Task: structure prediction
Amino acid sequence: MDSVLEACVFATVFCGFLGIILKKNLMMKIIAMDVMSTGVIACYVLVAARGGWFTPIASGRGEPVAYADPVPQAVILTAIVIGFSIQALMLVGTMKLARDTPTLEIDEIERNNTP
Amino acid sequence: MSPITIGWITLPFFLGFSIYLLPRLARHLALGMALLSGGYGFYCLLDPATVTLQLLGNFGVTLMIDSLSGFFILTNAVVTAAVILYCWPTDKSAFFFTQVVILHGSVNSAFICADFISLYVALEVISIATFLLIAYSRADRAIWVGLRYLFISNTAMLFYLIGAVLVYQSNHSFAFAGLGRAPTEAIALIVLGLLTKGGIFVSGLWLPLTHAEAETPVSALLSGVVIKAGVFPLVRCALLVEDLAPVVTVFGAGAALLGVGYALVETDTKRLLASSTLSQMGFLLVAPAAAGTYALTHGLAKAALFLIAGNLPSRSFQSLRQNPMGRSLWIAMAIAALSIAGMPLFAGFGAKALTLKGLVGWRAIALNGAAVGTAILMSKFLFLPSSSWPDKGDSLPSPRARPAELWTALGLLLSGLVVANGTSLDSYTGANLVKALGTLGLGGLIYYFTLQTVTLRIPRGAETLEHLIGAMSLMLAALFWMVLT
Result:
């Protein structure tokens, strides 16, 4: 089961990466990057769940349970926030570019803006 | 030491936002921060002990400060101070200075952190602040150049994150030292992220356009220090983990040659300087033990050259050859260019001697070749004509020139170069002197007799966004192969 999940996670990362290369539209490239980062986040969640699935909150009673590792979860929370803000910045930049290049075709943007 | 360090590393972020609330004090606060970092950097250099801090327990933030960090912090401080002085009288808004201070702080944190997640956060904050600085003018081209930079660095950092979690999985810690015990794919992914961020070899081909199209002070900042935030962790890891050193030095040597080759065909001053940064980062990486001095001398000289290039009447070498520049500007340019080329009496000599000293075999041949190449590149600047009475009408630039501030900034950077030379007096041996002068002379002669008349062109197809991203997959495959064997 574990390896199937791992394969799915890496397939997501790979699909996202291919999307970044193959999609011609800047908007689609940004969405593909989001897919890739979803894969990376899933990777962290998977690693955190290696030892168990329970929420790592000490209840103070009852027998110890196999709880998930809180460290990768905490770390990926930071990475999600950073990824989100970068995504927002890129979308604002794209909005500005869309005024002169409404189709957002990457070739056209590059032709217009490279010296 | 530890309260001082924590206070110093958090201060720029508080100051950055205070500047936004107190726009009148923007310039003073920003300059104060840079000077404070300069003091801290000196302190690190004078105190040779390595300080390791573990904050917030075992899984928290790890910091490591030694004289290597000290050199990088000092570079950051001097270049930032010079850029702030350069921008002092301009109508740049408080927003600009906020970003400069936040960038300064995040680059400093990249120079002292010793775990992969703190490094990730620092590098991402650097990306955001850099994007905002590049796109400051809000012209379409600036936005595109910034967007391209953000896109490439974010994709690289996604690979890096996967590598970081694999390191955690095998060590239950994100510390740099765990890289040695991590699986090969973790090493390949992390090194790919850092190579892209630090502009090394093929992964660094995004750099010439980004650094050349940014505004003059921003280019100086980017080429002077920001790029080193990606190289520093590689140097640090190569020193901590023995297996990594051969991989990293191969890329260093490749980058030194590729950068020189790329820069030789440039006809534009700023693009040439940016491509030369590509090769200088290779020099930095090829001898991790000497990286500190090299980073300092390169940072100061390159920032000075960018500030001068921004104040020349034209960016094209062709037209600069026809319009002589002022004599004093030429002398300042010559000092910076000679230092990069490794001329004795300037700090670049000691740094280059130290870098080339420990090399053996093909790496020594490659790097000496790259050193001759650098001398040829700098001859392009040295052979530009100058006149003592520049014709105010058309040869002196432009609305951009603000002589007093340009000279304050240049004075700071160039005096840094001469002072830093004083620390490397033991490099002044006969063999080193002969070698440095020979390299310079050979470079100058090659330029004078052949390249001055020949113009080559290479296609820039590799610099499109899709090819840059695609090159990451090739680099990843190459890294896998290198780490496995």
Observations:
- The longest helix of chain A spans residues 70-98.
- The mean pLDDT of chain A is 91.
